[in-house]
Amino acid sequence: MNGISVNTNNGAMQSLQYLNMTNAGLNTVQNAVNSGMTVADAQDNGAIFAIAQNMRGDVAGYSAVSGSLSRATSSVDVALSAGQSISDLLIQMKSQALSASDSSLDTASRQALNENFQALLGQITSVVQNAQFNGVNLIDGSTKTITALASTDGSHRITVSAENMSLSGKIVTIASTGSISTQSKASTMISTVESSLTNVDSALAQLSSGVSKFSIQSTFVSQLSTALTTGIGNLVDADMATESAQLNALQVKQQLGVQALSIANSAPQIALKLFG
Predict the structure, then answer these.
(1) pLDDT: is 253 or 4 the higher one?
(2) Using an 8 Å Cβ cutoff, are 199 and 166 in contact?
(3) CB neighbours of 87 closer than 8 A, spacing ≥ 6?
(4) Model confidence at 176: pLDDT above 80
């Protein structure tokens, strides 16, 4: 049995120790409630914080990859849209050439058809020149390929080849000076336009497969980023229901600790009654 001493109050010191522990726990819980995280910085848990930071770096990397894929997809989408317009124009040109090849057509009518044909040629050139996104044009011959990031370390990339649809090229073989001003020229132009139309449609299929590659990788990257973000949350986010319950418990313990310390501090006063 411990004696009564006015110099050393073991009960008070022990009560103070427990109260300090309770206060430390209360501070930890309050920080978690304020920040919404159980591990807000390296002081909370150095190992978990390091893992979370590495994962945050990966998430940031995937954000850059996603942006690269989006820009590349938009460039190819613009090229596809322009290519479809060129395909539609070629269909109209075939109709003009076929009409102009009719031997019964008078000169004035054939001339009118040729003027429409020339206008369609000019429209193809206009479409090709304006089919650019972010300074990239995939159908005018200025760009050979377009490449997008596929991994956070930059070691993997996805490349899609450009398709030059300019006049007098390998795809659109119609010369910029093409004409259907005579029956002979119109008859020859029919096969040229048909060949160009086939080539354009084939080029569109190639560009479309490129968009699919970008789209598949973009979806995959989005899923990875979401999974990592969820993983980071599992590591560092606070369960607010648990923290609330713990906060209430610690507040009660704090109040009890203060009362216990008060009682322990009053113990030496008993000595006065012994000498009363």
Answers:
(1) 253
(2) no
(3) 197, 200, 201, 204
(4) yes
Q: Look at 131 and 260; give whichever has higher pLDDT.
A: 131
Cα 65 from Cα 59, distance rounded (Å): 10
How far apart (Å, rounded) are the C-alpha atoms in residues 146 and 180?
A: 37
Question: How would DSSP label each residue in 140-181?
Answer: SSS-SEEEEE-STTS--EEEEE-----TTSSSS---TT---S
Name the residue among 62, 19, 53, 6 with its Cα closest to residue 220: 62
Exposure string of 203-217, with b = 16+ CB inside 10 Å and e = fewer, is: bbeebeebbebbeeb
Distance CA 186, CA 64 (A): 52
Q: Which sequence spans correspond to the domains of the chain?
A: 10-36+239-274, 46-235
- For residues 135 and 125, what is the distance between their CA atoms, to the nearest angstrom? 18
Query: Helix, strand, or coil here: 132?
Result: strand
* The predicted structure's pLDDT at residue 276: 63
Topology classification of domain 46-235: f41 fragment of flagellin, N-terminal domain (1.20.1330)
Higher pLDDT, 60 or 30: 60
Q: Is the pLDDT of residue 1 over 60?
A: no
Calculate mean pLDDT across residues 152-166.
93
Q: What is the pTM of this model?
A: 0.75
In this structure, are strands 136-137 and 145-149 parallel, antiparallel, or unpaired?
unpaired
Distant-in-sequence, close-in-space partners of 27: CB < 8 Å, separation ≥ 6: none
Task: Give the separation between CA 203 and CA 224, rounded to whole angstroms.
Answer: 32
What is the per-residue pLDDT for 12? 79
Mean pLDDT is lowest, of 237-241, 262-266, 272-276, for 272-276
